[in-house]
Fold this protein.
Amino acid sequence: MPINVSPIAGVDAGINDIRRRTADLINADVLPNEGKLWGSTQGRSVSDDERDQIRHQAAGLREEVKAKVRDAGLWAPHLPAEYGGMGLDFLQLAYMYEVLAYATGAAALFGVAAPNSGNARILVKYGTEEQKRTWLLPLIDGQLESGFSMTEPDAAGSDPRSLTTEAVREGDDWVINGHKWFTSNGFAADFFIVMCRANDPTGELGKPGQMTQIIVPSKTPGVNIIRGIGIFGHSTSDHCEIVYDNVRVPVENTLGLVGQGHQAAQDRLGAGRIYHCMNSIGQMWRAFDLMVERSLAREVHGGLLRDKQFIQGFIADSYMDIQAARLMTINAAEKVAGNDPQARTAISAIKVFVPAAYHRVVDRAIQVWGGAGVSNDLPLGRMYLAARVLRLADGPDEVHRILMAKNILHEYESGNTWDFGK
């Protein structure tokens, strides 16, 4: 079923044009080939030669779609035009991403593949010209892959102050020691952006212990990839556990200034929360369409599912979840775009509400599809797991609830009340 996109009243004509052209490509080139684009042979009995052929054909098909995306002027919407992107602003990206997320894996075909896209944005903002030539441009061109290495197994992911990986300056080098896990894209990455506590004994680069991001080539001696972490019963993943054992890289690999690491992470994660929510809405949209489509065609106990009150309730509840999640997220995006001081509260609100709504919408769709809903024939199973992960990623629900409450209480303690009209 194609995504149904029409102009949004009151929204800039340029945004509506981007949404329409994105939807046209999704409907014409991605959805009809969804089963072929990724070359999956899971559950199929094929020879090694057949598997290689399937993967080769899939890679060729992906390149064909990417070429059409570039021709349509829709490549790398998150990057400035001088780096080959569309140069979209924050709100334009949010509106585009909900359409892009409708099809499984489509974002990668438009040059928006995590963690590369987030790393590219950080390199654009904080990288030196040499770093951009060495790492950013090849990353954009697809010649390099990257990973983001922040979370540690012995430190609470919700509290970056607890990170212990240390980079000690020795002459013109950093020597890095630490233990990370859930490092994204770990096996494929040509370089990692590693969050460290910097310690320069000379004092030239500031006081010790400041959060700093450092570019580390993955082939550097001492970068030990221990394993791909198994997730939800799968034996492995591309989220890796890595030990950095006396890893030596030049001081020139510092991304931004010593002490800017936390701000760089917030720049990445703050925007990412909005985009994750818009992506979730796109996936909810797809799950809703699949659920309603099934209800119109599936006969059970003498009638169509559409005529059963339970199913009608599912449709109504999912409609409300999607509408509420979408309007809350657009409101938060508008606050961010307008530098509204209440933006942090709005972001925390959607970070809690949207993944939970996403989970509910997908759960209902699975129930309507029955056994097929949990099979790999449909994208619902992957959506279900993604929704659960989002309640942890970029800050767990509990942290965001606390932040919301603190912001609201502070407003009342200052003699004001909360303005829900903003």
